[in-house]
Amino acid sequence: PSSKREGFPSPPSTSWSDIGALHGVRQELHMAIVQPIRRPEVFKRLGISAPRGVLLWGPPGNGKTLLARAVASEGRAGFIAVKGPELLNKYVGESERSVRAVFARARASSPCVIFFDEIDALVPRRSDKLSEASTNIVNTLLAELDGLSQRKAIYVIGATNRPDMIDPALLRPGRFDKLVYVDLPKSDERVEIGRTVVQREKVPVRGGLDGEDWKAVEMLLAADQSDGMSGADITALITEAASTALRYALGEAMQNGDQELHGPSTEQSLREQAEAE
Ligand code: ATP
C-alpha cells in the first residue's frame, strides 16, 4: 500500500502483450531483471548475480522505452524514467543532486527500475573535452551505480541510439554490463507489431484482423518497400489510416444524414460515387 502513496513510483501499465515481435530481447530481459525481482531466492541459491544495469541500444522508435516499462510492470516494480537531456539542463550542481535523488527514491521503494533514456546525453565519452558539469554528472552516476547493493532490488536500464558515444567507464562490470540490441523489425515482425498496435490501441478495422482491410495493411507491412520502418512508424501508419478511414466513414454518414455538410471526405466519396456511375 505504501507504493500507492504520493511520490512513490508505481509499476507502469505497459505489459509484454503491448509489444509486438522482439521475442529474443524480451526473453533476455525476463531472465536478467524480471526473474531476479520475482524470485531473488533462486538466484541467491544458485549464486548467480543479476546484471546491475542493462543498456538497450539501437535505432530510434523500436520499443526501448516500451520494453523498460514492461520489465518494471512484469516485475511488479516501481518505475522511474529520466530523460538524459532534461537532467542536463539544470543549474550548476543541480544535475548531480537530481541523479542522487533518483537513486534515493528508488532505494526507498524497491523493487524499482530506473530508466535513463538518451543516456548518451548524460554520460558522453570523457575524451571529448567535457565540461566540468558533465564530468560531475558522470562521476555521480558511476558512484551511485557502484554503491548499489546486490541485496536491494534496484535495476537500471539505459537506452541510446549511439552506444559509441557513451563513456566506456559506464560499461565496466557491475555497471551497465549487459548490452541488448533492439533492431528494426523484419517483414514478419512488422506485421506482428501492426497486429499488436491494432489490439493495443483498439483501432477499428472493418472485418477485424481476418477481414480484407487488414489483409491489405498486412501486405503493405510485409512488402520490401516497408523495409526500414520502425515500430513507431508502424504505429503512426496504423493510427493515421484508422483516423482517415474514420473521417471517410463520418463523411459518408454526414452526406447521408445532412446534405449541408461538405468535409473533404464527403467530397471524396461523392467523387468516387460519380466515378462508379
Ligand atoms: P527512442 O530511441 O526514439 O526513444 P524507443 O526505441 O524508446 O525510441 P519507443 O518510445 O519504445 O521507442 O517506441 C515508440 C512508439 O513506437 C511506442 O510508443 C509504440 O507505440 C511504438 N512501438 C515501437 N516498437 C514497438 C513494438 N515492438 N511493438 C509495438 N509498438 C511499438
TrEMBL record:
Domain AAA+ ATPase: 50-186
Entry's family note: Belongs to the AAA ATPase family.
Protein's name in the database: AAA-domain-containing protein
Organism: Dacryopinax primogenitus (strain DJM 731)
Lineage per the UniProt record: Eukaryota, Fungi, Dikarya, Basidiomycota, Agaricomycotina
